[in-house]
Amino acid sequence: MDQPTPGDATGHPSHLNNRCLTNADTFRAVLQRDRDTENRYLLTVELSSHKQGMENSSRPETGEFAAFLAEISDSALKFRNLDVLREEDL
Fold first, then answer.
1. What is the 3-state secondary structure (H, E, C) of the chain?
2. Which residues pair with 46 in a beta bridge?
3. Secondary structure class of 76 (helix, strand, coil)
4. Bridge-partner residues for 28, per DSSP?
5. What is the mean predicted confidence (pLDDT) over 48-64?
6. How far apart (Å, rounded) are the C-alpha atoms in residues 76 and 84?
7. In whole angstroms, what is the distance from residue 37 CA to residue 87 CA?
8. Is 80 exposed, middle or buried (0-12, 13-18, 19+ CB in 10 A)?
9. Which helix (H) or strand (E) holds 68?
């Protein structure tokens, strides 16, 4: 079975808003492809606050989207709960 890639219509981060972030005030999604490892992608979703992130994590749509990502992934998904320590425009 052909699996959708993160860059196509079913996996592109522009569809995150419809899948799991419908209640988020502000978010930023960045999809990156590893240049050194074929078929390795990193999706980073940044919400406006820790509280909003925790609320979003408990939404059924977020669980459904995680299940979708797990289906098209060759290995286990890894989730991180990170605090921004510093942000600069260089």
1. CCCCCCCCCCCCHHHHHHHCCCCCCCEEEEEEECCCCCCCEEEEEEECCHHHHHHHHCCHHHHHHHHHHHHHCCCCCCCCCCCCCCCCCC
2. 28
3. coil
4. 46
5. 88
6. 25
7. 27
8. exposed
9. helix 60-72
Is the separation of the CB atoms in 21 and 45 below 8 Å? yes
Mean pLDDT of the chain: 78
Query: 61 and 19 in contact (C-beta within 8 Å)?
Result: yes
Please check whether residue 16 is in contact with residue 10, taking contact to mean a CB–CB distance below 8 angstroms. Answer: no
- Contacts with 62 (C-beta within 8 Å, 6 or more apart), sequence order: 20, 21, 56
Q: What are phi and psi of 69, to 5 degrees?
A: -65, -40
DSSP one-letter code for 67: H
d(CA 10, CA 68): 10
Query: Which tens digits make up the pLDDT trace of 34-53?
Result: 999 998 889 888 888 888 88
Give the pair of three-digit tokens for residue 83: 């605090």
